[in-house]
Amino acid sequence: MQVLAAKLVDLDLTASEINALAILADGRGRTISELGAAAGTRPTTLTSVLDRLERRGHITRGTRPSDRRVVVIEPTASGRLVSGTIRQTLAEMEEQALDGLPPEAIAGFHTVLRALAEVPA
């Protein structure tokens, strides 16, 4: 994460903020619990990260029409732009790391990543 943060130093974001925005890069809103699970962070810890991102205009907090008690975090236009930069940087880092490996090794790597993403927290 430190290498990523160093590559993205111009964004002036902490590693936790980068992680949250990377998760939101698909533009899909998530509850604080969903975002916390994806980030591997407790919702209470995530609150200060979200406060900072909201102050910078990168996210909004809203509610679901079906349950107004649920807080949904969504990226703003600014947040989508920044998260796109984060995702692009991640893709470039992955490409550099996997450069020269045979296709079956890369496929195996992606299989392991998907399996790890599906492990319950």
TrEMBL record:
Signal peptide segment: none
Highest taxon in the source lineage: Bacteria
HTH marR-type domain: residues covered: 1-118
Keyword Transcription included in the entry's annotation: yes
GO MF assignments: DNA binding; DNA-binding transcription factor activity
Gene Ontology biological process terms in this record: response to stress
Gene3D superfamilies: Winged helix-like DNA-binding domain superfamily/Winged helix DNA-binding domain
Keywords: DNA-binding, Transcription, Transcription regulation
Keyword Transcription regulation among UniProt keywords: yes
Pfam families: MarR
The protein, known as: MarR family transcriptional repressor of emrRAB
